[in-house]
Design brief:
mainly beta; 11 strands; disordered N terminus
Length: 213
């Protein structure tokens, strides 16, 4: 084979090899989307992730293990906002273990749960008066079927570490019942004239009504 012919074949081979290893317009390249997603796989950010005609729940912070969420809705014509950390079960025993009986529980994760009413309301079967404003919401389970709902006047606090009973506004009886299906994450909901706490195999609720106008 002539030297010129040999170099010609070699040049063609190099051109073909280079062309085969060049990406074609990025169509076969793997792309990465770092947009935070909800448990259902939907994009979250600050958008609504669940709810109904009475309320919506939005993600506030998805960068932590127990995402910070905020419920906004109405009960009996009163605007209600609940800001809370949403822990997961993660195959743990919740009631009587992670949530011990006989102790005040922050009712969520990280910061204490905060509840806000736009107008005066009454809460519980005791019809305890709660002026418009923001309060921390704690619970005190004696056992799985015996719950006390606590609204504390110190709205901003971390967990229940600095909780003081002296700052309690009200303590009312909560109602509990088995959940129709287990909830992996702790969440709040509004159902008619009740606030509901749902986690694991239990739903704890308490009634809320607008105070006499």
């Amino acid at each position: 084979m002539h030297r010129k012919t040999f170099y010609g074949f070699l040049l063609c081979a190099l051109v073909l090899a280079f062309g085969c290893n060049t990406p074609s317009n990025g169509s076969t390249e793997e792309t990465t989307d770092n947009t935070p997603t909800s448990e259902s796989g939907m994009e979250t950010g600050g958008s609504s992730m669940q709810g109904n005609d009475q309320y919506t729940v939005s993600m506030l912070d998805t960068t932590i293990k127990s995402p910070r969420k905020e419920l906004k809705g109405t009960i009996d014509g009163v605007d209600v906002t609940i800001n809370y950390g949403s822990p997961a079960v993660n195959e743990r025993t919740i009631y009587g273990d992670l949530v011990p009986y006989g102790q005040v529980w922050r009712t969520g994760a990280n910061e204490a749960t905060r509840i806000t009413f736009s107008e005066d309301v009454t809460i519980g079967e005791e019809n305890s008066l709660v002026p418009a404003g923001t309060y921390s919401l704690f619970t005190l389970p004696a056992d799985k079927n015996d719950w006390t709902i606590i609204l504390n006047k110190t709205a901003d606090q971390w967990g229940a570490y600095d909780y003081s009973e002296d700052d309690d506004l009200i303590r009312v009886k909560g109602m509990s019942e088995p959940a129709s299906s287990p909830a992996e994450r702790m969440d709040f909901a509004l159902d008619g004239q009740s606030v509901e706490l749902m986690w694991s195999d239990l739903v704890v609720s308490f009634p809320v009504m607008a105070a006499a106008r």
